[in-house]
Batch of 2 targets.
Target 1
Amino acid sequence: DVARVDHHRALRQDQVEAVYGPGKTPEQCVLVVGELLSVPADGPVLLTRVDDAQVAAVLDAHPGGEVVAGTVVWRRASERAERVVVVTAGTADLPVADECAAVLDALGFRPRRITDAGVAGIHRILAEVDELLAADAVVVVAGMEGALASVVGGIAACPVVAVPTSVGYGAGLEGVTALLGMLASCAAGITVVGIDNGFGAAMAVARALPR
Amino acid sequence: DVARVDHHRALRQDQVEAVYGPGKTPEQCVLVVGELLSVPADGPVLLTRVDDAQVAAVLDAHPGGEVVAGTVVWRRASERAERVVVVTAGTADLPVADECAAVLDALGFRPRRITDAGVAGIHRILAEVDELLAADAVVVVAGMEGALASVVGGIAACPVVAVPTSVGYGAGLEGVTALLGMLASCAAGITVVGIDNGFGAAMAVARALPR
Amino acid sequence: DVARVDHHRALRQDQVEAVYGPGKTPEQCVLVVGELLSVPADGPVLLTRVDDAQVAAVLDAHPGGEVVAGTVVWRRASERAERVVVVTAGTADLPVADECAAVLDALGFRPRRITDAGVAGIHRILAEVDELLAADAVVVVAGMEGALASVVGGIAACPVVAVPTSVGYGAGLEGVTALLGMLASCAAGITVVGIDNGFGAAMAVARALPR
Amino acid sequence: DVARVDHHRALRQDQVEAVYGPGKTPEQCVLVVGELLSVPADGPVLLTRVDDAQVAAVLDAHPGGEVVAGTVVWRRASERAERVVVVTAGTADLPVADECAAVLDALGFRPRRITDAGVAGIHRILAEVDELLAADAVVVVAGMEGALASVVGGIAACPVVAVPTSVGYGAGLEGVTALLGMLASCAAGITVVGIDNGFGAAMAVARALPR
Amino acid sequence: DVARVDHHRALRQDQVEAVYGPGKTPEQCVLVVGELLSVPADGPVLLTRVDDAQVAAVLDAHPGGEVVAGTVVWRRASERAERVVVVTAGTADLPVADECAAVLDALGFRPRRITDAGVAGIHRILAEVDELLAADAVVVVAGMEGALASVVGGIAACPVVAVPTSVGYGAGLEGVTALLGMLASCAAGITVVGIDNGFGAAMAVARALPR
Amino acid sequence: DVARVDHHRALRQDQVEAVYGPGKTPEQCVLVVGELLSVPADGPVLLTRVDDAQVAAVLDAHPGGEVVAGTVVWRRASERAERVVVVTAGTADLPVADECAAVLDALGFRPRRITDAGVAGIHRILAEVDELLAADAVVVVAGMEGALASVVGGIAACPVVAVPTSVGYGAGLEGVTALLGMLASCAAGITVVGIDNGFGAAMAVARALPR
Amino acid sequence: DVARVDHHRALRQDQVEAVYGPGKTPEQCVLVVGELLSVPADGPVLLTRVDDAQVAAVLDAHPGGEVVAGTVVWRRASERAERVVVVTAGTADLPVADECAAVLDALGFRPRRITDAGVAGIHRILAEVDELLAADAVVVVAGMEGALASVVGGIAACPVVAVPTSVGYGAGLEGVTALLGMLASCAAGITVVGIDNGFGAAMAVARALPR
Amino acid sequence: DVARVDHHRALRQDQVEAVYGPGKTPEQCVLVVGELLSVPADGPVLLTRVDDAQVAAVLDAHPGGEVVAGTVVWRRASERAERVVVVTAGTADLPVADECAAVLDALGFRPRRITDAGVAGIHRILAEVDELLAADAVVVVAGMEGALASVVGGIAACPVVAVPTSVGYGAGLEGVTALLGMLASCAAGITVVGIDNGFGAAMAVARALPR
Ligand SMILES: Nc1ncnc2c1ncn2[C@@H]1O[C@H](COP(=O)(O)O)[C@@H](O)[C@H]1O
Ligand SMILES: Nc1ncnc2c1ncn2[C@@H]1O[C@H](COP(=O)(O)O)[C@@H](O)[C@H]1O
Ligand SMILES: Nc1ncnc2c1ncn2[C@@H]1O[C@H](COP(=O)(O)O)[C@@H](O)[C@H]1O
Ligand SMILES: Nc1ncnc2c1ncn2[C@@H]1O[C@H](COP(=O)(O)O)[C@@H](O)[C@H]1O
Ligand SMILES: [Mg+2]
Ligand SMILES: [Mg+2]
Ligand SMILES: [Mg+2]
Ligand SMILES: [Mg+2]
Ligand SMILES: [Mg+2]
Ligand SMILES: [Mg+2]
Ligand SMILES: [Mg+2]
Ligand SMILES: [Mg+2]
């Protein structure tokens, strides 16, 4: 019965609660965040992809939020021991990786960052083999052809979550090329989230590394 | 240096080694499998999506293989304690789920199966809430609109890997509809593998549940 | 002969007449609306998706119009008894649902609204089962993966019209993902209108519930 | 609670139960059909898109089924008074329309058929205006450009369900062209089901014309 | 040899010469138009899809141009006797039809216009059957599902050139739906030009109706 | 009124009547062809894309038909004076061009053929400039990139109808590449029919060259 | 003048002449090959993608041809000194690479082969760095995500021609995924030919390495 | 070992180093360019697709850069003897061709330009046959249907690199039509880079013409 669902909610009380900002008025943001903060639990609350008006309104109504990479975080979790790595191929992938890192941080992970590791200069990711082998989870953020996910997936043994980005022009097809490449990857067992979905990748890491 | 890569191979010696059958002659299968079995390690070796001629040849050359759901398995791993659940929406998704289950089994997982749980009869998956809450990892195999992944992802807190299938006709677009739906899912943190890639989903579970 | 067509017009004199605003000058709007209001009949007249200049012009020329959700309505129909429900998955689907509700209202239906019922929190739509069972028609407005239509279609026995929305980013493909998912739905007998076409869904309800 | 769902099942006991044949073994068909026939209710039971082996097995196990247009029907409903019309554009659309008509017939509707009414010879559908004006529901089955749905939708005031078919070659794109055309139709309030889904259209009619 | 090509140029000296404005600086427009006007011939010269700066520059440099529907015309041809009809489905198709009509006019045709003849109100195009039967060529400009081309093509016996427009939203796919529908049309012998290509349609009429 | 449509039929009595063979039983072919031959008129009657069983049946029932390129022709029209040219790029385009030529022949045109004129050997089409300049209509049949239509359209001043073919592999996308290329052609006034639609191109020529 | 084109033919007399087999009758093959062999020049003549009947006919009519990888070669060129490397990612890419190697061989190149070098095991291609650095041209043949081209392009300084293959299933989209990935590659200056076009890649190498 | 990769870097020290401007802050540009200029080598350094703020910042920090066609060049190479030709179809292709020419120039090539050579006026490219025959490499930049690449590829014997551009509207599909056409080209051995990727084409020329 539905009680089971309620029970289930209880089990997950310490989980993150996230609100997607775009399309909501500042007032709606204040309301929804308020509701989530009022629940007697201690999990983090997030408002993502905010604009300036939304930030102003929610910080006024609900002090204590910290703003990182377009994400407002309340009740940031204390540090956890697992090693999470966020890898990016190029400069243009950084905003998506930053959102991912901000959400990971809110969840208690303090992700290490490997940047500018595109496969056309393969020595760059090879220099990070030790880091990848030691990781408990890796997020690979890459646009264009998305090949970095295959290379990383072939090195790391842990969960590898690939995030295609809409970076690039022409044949990158706004992320579809990277998405398809990651899905068709010959590296067994890597998984994929939606285009530019840094948030989703962070949440996938949280699922893979339960407390 | 590349020694690091070799070192890395050592670290992963107990991993599964899988050969993709289609497009290989029986002789090629015998050769590659033989090479993998000759390595002094004890991880399982798999030959997937085999046809009859391939099976005959490899079992003759390398006795001891077991055939399940189109997969030949040597050195099947001993049972592990984690609870893995494989959920399917309809009858037509079963072959993909069976491949996934066979690979999981080779890896030591003894997956539980939930079948015929399409969301158009929502009580069917609701009857399995306890099973989903107790799981350490869930694989959702679904074609058509792929909505089952969103519902399961909203219930289970553990890693949820979604496998779109090419089942169905017309607007199912041979799995593309399910794939897109799973990627665009509103359930945070579920991840997706390629169309019909039951093997990949099993390997993703193995990454998420290291020994 | 074509007289049959004229006869047919007579039969439908009490129907809604709707003008699509975008791409028309305020003057064109005034003209077309004037023509429709001049016909000796009492059905409602609508001007949809208006901008400010169009509203100003038509209300000046044709007083008595009411503006709701970007729709100007003249000769709003008196209340009807049938129960129509408009369900939305997320905040971002509201504008499309609002247009749908405004047109339904003009037609005499006073639709009930169920909001924020996305399937990733399945208890939300389950809490509305009685409402859905009692409905004479349901409109489901959803973007992203559009799975809500399948779940609602499996509960309600009445006509269910699904409206995919262009809400979301990346793999939502501006509504195409939701559209495909709704068309491929495993819930038998649900039907679909074009992306963001809240107006069309309201008109489909009117066809299904003749006076 | 889920009891509500069960209650809901009770409410719908007289509904059709349909099993999709393709991909099921004859044994699976016998089993599922048997289960559905064993429920103490009097609604029709259907097995659709059957092949010869499936027909032989199910008729042997469950005598009394009638086979029409690839559909096996048990407990065919008694005749209902509503007028349902199934219109087709060309010869090649007939199989889809036949499946639709067979399902409608199982539900108690005795659909009238209008055939060869493609819009390139517009006098053909104009000759049927009286029939369309008198209808309680119309199903339009058309491939290629699918324009027939727009014309019929502009004439009939009742529910119009459009079924795109995969008929034709080249630019018909296996039904996608007709599907898009029907969704983008300028005839307000027509709705669409998936490509070749004659079954779904019949079920949509059943929703629109409750007993 | 290439002399044959030159000879060919001679044969075509009275043809229209057209310059596509977008992407050219006003200076480039002045130059190219000047070159074309300097050729000792009497065919019309056109500059299409101009912006204000381009218009100002070319009229200043080359007086005598007339501006209609975003097209500047020099040496407009004297009136010809053939009957050309330009049909549009909705208000939003007018800009494309206007460009087509402006080019036809420059070529000496004085096209008749039939507007607001979308097929959802089939009596509207039926009222113009005599006009269509008397035509020497018809251009059909339509967006959304583009069905008007099939209906007109089934009535008129002369060349029918269909122009899909990018009008509409959602499932219209910026003209692709209309394009596909026109190509897949069941009306034999109608032909199609690119999306929004009113200019191309006018040129096709000129080819079909040589002096 | 609809009488106008009938009148219109009278006007077009000498037109070709064509039946599309695929998907029709031999009996249906016999019936439809018989009906068309029974009309007291003298226009040609065609049955296209026939298989052997259909040919046997219709020639038995309706003697006097001639079979060319998969098309059965009754009442072939007497020769006309206009020069029609059918150009092909490669060997693989021949079947589509043959169907086109057969239909043209049935209509009284005795088309000239230019073959193997792909643009990668541009001297091949240049050798035919005189033929193209003298033509009253040209049909260009080409697969792969379809560039031949642009080159021919730049040489010939008469109507040029382009037929994309599904010839080729990989990036030819079964005719879509050629189709798009022809629609986007920089040669003004060329028009396009559906992929592989040689019949449609012949009918377009008939429209452009009325008796 | 066209003489220049003829002159040009003279300049290229020593080039390969290739006939594409599929869609040609054995007789057509004999004829075209005969014509090419009769030209007083010494360049190789190729008939590609042949079936058994074609092989029998052409070898009978034109003795001296050698058959390799579905290609018949006459007048194979003597060995050249340049180092050309053909790299493949997986077993399934071999047929395309074999065609490429056969054409290269006919042209006088004796290509070295690197196989099974997919990027998910990055040490495999790293073991070949010296070979890649010493190459005068590299062809990379890869399906699935096509990432190998980016890695090779980042190592080798010479011309790198990428050939996407239709190998794989699901999200590989029959080569489109690899094609897009190669086009969007972050390795500067690599170029791409059509899906499965091993022949084209060999010809591109011939252009890059003139005698 | 990875030392081989380092060795490889040494071999390529005189190569161009290019930074892609879009998405980088002026500060990031200054930093990366500075790093590249600090390497004790004499190859050119490029910053491409710059905006005004980026130009101001980098020229201030690193004097001596020259700005051409949106590209800043430091350490421009001295002139080389090879003949490289850049051909464009229309005015709108010029920006992409200009970027290509600027990069070629930085590399020491002084490319010749052929402009306005679209195939609809085939005499225009024929007038340049001598230039094409004398070339060591040709870049063809074309939008719309991209046919120019096939014609040029059939004339020139040297490497031909095709660049599809996103020029045009409607059926040009923002470069996809030209891209597909170039890939499917019947001219053997031409290769393709991504849409609008003038930079990539120049780099491909550099690979084909090593010092
Ligand atoms: N059934 C399967 N589905 C998807 N990928 C597979 C499957 N079986 C094996 N693979 C992958 O394919 C690779 C082997 O390809 P190959 O070297 O051609 O045998 C392995 O590394 C696996 O990652
Ligand atoms: N011919 C058909 N076309 C489309 N859907 C069908 C058809 N027959 C049955 N179905 C649907 O498929 C579901 C049964 O699927 P299954 O459980 O696999 O038999 C039913 O709930 C129906 O909604
Ligand atoms: N080979 C063909 N290719 C395309 N359309 C055809 C062909 N043959 C006949 N048609 C069209 O198909 C229509 C006949 O369809 P049907 O009524 O099914 O025989 C005719 O009106 C023709 O316009
Ligand atoms: N195996 C192949 N793959 C791709 N293109 C080929 C192949 N063999 C020949 N061709 C091309 O096809 C053209 C010959 O086509 P055809 O005239 O039909 O024989 C030649 O000019 C080659 O460029
Ligand atoms: Mg870099
Ligand atoms: Mg079922
Ligand atoms: Mg929510
Ligand atoms: Mg017919
Ligand atoms: Mg209107
Ligand atoms: Mg040839
Ligand atoms: Mg392998
Ligand atoms: Mg020009």
Target 2
Amino acid sequence: MNLKQLSELLDLSQTTISRALNGYPEVSERTRFKVVEAARKHGYKPNSNARKLATGRAGSIGYVLPVGRNVDLDPHFVEFLSGMGEHALSREVDLSLTPAPYEKESEAYRRIAASRSVDGVYLSSMRNDEQRIALVRGLGLPFLAHGRALAPADGYACVDIDNEGAFHAATRLLLQLGHKRLAYLNGDTDYAFAVHRLNGVTRAMSEYGLAAESLRHHSAAMNEENGYRLAMMMFRDSDPATRPTGVLSASMFTTLGIVRALNHLGLKMPDDVSVITHDDVFPFLKPESFSVPLTTTRSSIRAAGARICERLVDIITGVESEPVQEIWPVELIVRASTGPAPAEGKRAHGRAAEPAE
Amino acid sequence: MNLKQLSELLDLSQTTISRALNGYPEVSERTRFKVVEAARKHGYKPNSNARKLATGRAGSIGYVLPVGRNVDLDPHFVEFLSGMGEHALSREVDLSLTPAPYEKESEAYRRIAASRSVDGVYLSSMRNDEQRIALVRGLGLPFLAHGRALAPADGYACVDIDNEGAFHAATRLLLQLGHKRLAYLNGDTDYAFAVHRLNGVTRAMSEYGLAAESLRHHSAAMNEENGYRLAMMMFRDSDPATRPTGVLSASMFTTLGIVRALNHLGLKMPDDVSVITHDDVFPFLKPESFSVPLTTTRSSIRAAGARICERLVDIITGVESEPVQEIWPVELIVRASTGPAPAEGKRAHGRAAEPAE
């Protein structure tokens, strides 16, 4: 049944029917109800769907949501969604989340492509050796990556931040301040961002003549618990002459744990330990909101969400035809958690340094 | 074009075509590509869609995602999504997020109902006077509420936690411990959960003969910054004989700020101030992970997400026909942040108490 037929059936103008089905407030609830019922009964697809059918589009962009008993979505995802949602609103598209455990991911992309329930997908949490790029390409699914895989490194559209540059700059600052014993509490190095960051750290170290092997590097899920556990391991009963004086941290949640460990051990920022943290800009927990405000590498994940939605829609509609690798610079914001390395002979704070107390 | 025709056209068995389109690994990538291309070209809708068309279902549940420059999604939403996704996976449904600013929310629900892009919706962040229930009911959209509005209070399906009971129990514990001057850093009281909790606090106070007016109550967004700001306001330059000794907090992020303020002012938990916090169970920041582990009211928001998905699918498929208001009890877990009220004559910690130091 088309609009004209429905209009005749209900004895209402085509304009009224369109308005009723598209949510305009001029139509009374009674009329709207009548129209919605009739449209459903007679299988009439209203304008938005008709337009979508005409253009061949679903009006939705897709994401395969990792799920599983041991899978924790990163809290920063809410900010990413906020950014994406703001832009999606302006382009009148929905976001469709298809849950899938890691081992059934390919199947999920295949189902999405086959059912044409979305017009394109974005990929995130890019891995070192990324299988999904070839997969979605083979399926003919328009896509954009949030982040970059280590391999394949070219030929696909992405938005990423300069993770290597950010951690290179952060490490260089610590080195300029005289720190020689560094630690990095990294995210999971199965993911490319963590490898990029590690490369930035070791590149800066090598520029200052320090061997990569001297870095205390730990790869773990980025939460408070791991931050605490790893910092305790590193600083408890440690010798002030050999323990790290400069610590890099992959996430604000990790740093909450590092700070708890330092407080517990009576070690001070920045006198005993300088700390630099990556900050995705998270309104619930800000780097200024630490007893000692944190020096950070900063890039808004909300802005990335908006940009990814914008470009994905451009890719779907053919506005963007050549794949662009868009890499955002990251700011290094200095606050009170960084300072000169403690002088070797200087009396250090902390229980470990003063066993006799 | 139907499956039989496509099978003849490609000279492939119907089984192979179904497998190719439904992501089974037995099919080679080359064959899959050929099938997907042909299906697209000839407008063949594969099984999952055919099934959905046959049952009249979209295979998707919807949520209107609040967006706007000043809108921050709560970080606990990632845990809710994880729970929802785990169950959605087992029922083979997707989650569809339709972004909308507050003032265009009704329009979004109307569009969802008209386009039949989802089979049902869940509502969250229920307000005191909730307009959405009548709206989605009028639109004939199956729905389930996460939380309960204050009005209308009956006749719709929901999953909620016993917010009033939780904060009644928390307050009663503080009163049993001898605390008489209480404060509550609440969430935004435009939302029903915050009013339910406040009712729990004042009901317990009245049972102990304390006037509701004596409660120091603040309603604000639940983040670290507000926790710090409000706690500083309450405890800085305050008289130890009149300042609160028992503090209730609506969220772990708020409590991070409270703890920072107490540390800053040299006030100790629980000697100077007892603190009880609501905990949605958040793997990135646990109540045990505070220098002084937190006493909490606890309920898993991830479990709520799974249950809401389960019941919404049951409502859509007609398994659940009568609207059930399912209210979950909340546990009160005692840790080190609560203790007896400081004796009036006892020397108190903190700068405010010792201006001469």
